[in-house]
Amino acid sequence: MNHARTERAALGDLLSRLGPDAPTLCAGWTTFDLAAHLVLREHRPDAAPGIMFERLAGHTASVQESMKARYGYDGLVELMRTGPAGLYRLVPGLDRLVNTAEYFIHHEDVRRAQRVWEPRELPADLEETFWSQVRAGRGVFLRKAPARVVLRRTGGGIAIGGPRNAPPVQVTGGAGELLLFCFGRQAHARVELSGAEETVAGLMDAPLGV
User: Fold this and answer.
1) In angstroms, rounded to a whole number, what is the distance separating the alpha carbons of residues 188 and 198?
2) Which SUPFAM superfamilies did the record assign (predicted)?
3) Which end of the chain, N or C, is surrounded by fewer C-beta atoms within 10 Å?
């Protein structure tokens, strides 16, 4: 089983245990909303573009609500568990390439929204995968950063992104934590930041990610 499917299974177990009304780090979303989002991505390609493009978001939100009404929470969690579906099943390697980070991030969105949580120790190969994704995507993830961001991976490795002439901020942590930081979970990533106080504060509030 690849890491995308491992994270999918673990998230499914957590969603089943917490029920539909638990909080997540996704603003305004409960676990019910998140389950619908994950199923929509794979089962309703007509509605998926609204995840990325604001002008299409209304259609996506409408479809997401209709899926909640049609399948219910348990049905959505089961559909999510049985994936990948759609293109993620048809295109070789796409599930691993895209869903490893997707399901890790959303798994942590649920874990870290609960009252008690601790970071997980990730397998070495998964840390390497996330570090490769951080390095490859830093230009996109950090394009709205108000700082020149120096991402320093614990154990070795540096990636730099953000405006070239902006004041610097160094962000240090494991690859999984840096990935969460770069995907807009700054307040919940276990990282250390160093730089001018005002610049660090601006970076913490910036809309990072895709």
Assistant:
1) 19
2) DinB/YfiT-like putative metalloenzymes
3) N
- Count CB neighbours of 127 within 10 A: 20
Question: pTM for the complete prediction?
Answer: 0.94
Tell me phi and psi for residue 160, to 5 degrees.
Answer: -125, 135
* Domains within the chain, CATH numbers bracketed: 3-111 (no CATH), 124-205 (3.30.1050)
What are the angstrom distances between the C-alpha of 21 and each of 11, 15, 24?
15, 10, 9
Dihedral of CA atoms 76, 77, 83, 85 in degrees, nearest 10, equals 20
**pLDDT tens-place values along the chain, 210 residues long:** 699 999 999 999 999 999 999 999 998 999 999 999 999 999 998 888 888 888 888 999 999 999 999 999 999 999 999 989 888 898 989 999 999 999 999 999 999 999 999 999 999 999 999 999 999 999 999 999 999 999 999 989 999 999 999 999 999 999 999 999 999 999 999 999 999 999 999 999 999 998
DSSP string for residues in 90-118: HSTTHIIIIIHHHHHHHHHHHHTTSSS--
How far apart are the C-alpha atoms of 173 and 157, rounded to whole Å?
A: 10
Burial class (CB in 10 A: 0-12, 13-18, 19+), 155: exposed
